[in-house]
Amino acid sequence: MSKKKKKVNVFLAGPIAGVPNYKENFANAEKTVREKYDCFDVWNPADLPQGANVEWYMEKCLCRLGELSEGSKHKPCIVVALPNIGPTSGANVEIAYAEYLGIEVVRLVDLMEQKS
Length: 116
Known about the structure:
It is built from 4 helices and 4 strands; from the N terminus they run βαβαβαβα. It is α/β, with parallel strands linked by helices.
C-alpha cells in the first residue's frame, strides 16, 4: 500500500549571500521537497531576480511567509531549512518569523533521511 504524500505549500530557507553554488543547493532542496510532499507551491528565494539589495530580498521573503501563514488554514505550509545556515544568515530571520507565525519548520537533512 502506498503512503499518501502530505499536500503543502513549502518555503525554502537557506544561505545565499557568500555561497557560490546557492542556486544548485536550492534546486536540489526543491527536488527533495517535491519527492517528499505533494506541493501546492514551493517558494524558492534562489529564483528571485538578482541585483537587488538584501533588504529587498528579506522583504519579499517575509511577505511570502506572512501570506503562507494567512492561507495555512486552507493549505498547510512548512518551512524547509537548508543546511549550513550561519549565524548571520537571513534564513535565521525567516525561520524565526515562521516559528512566530506558527508555521512548521523542518530540516532538509531530516527529510532526506526519511524513507519515501
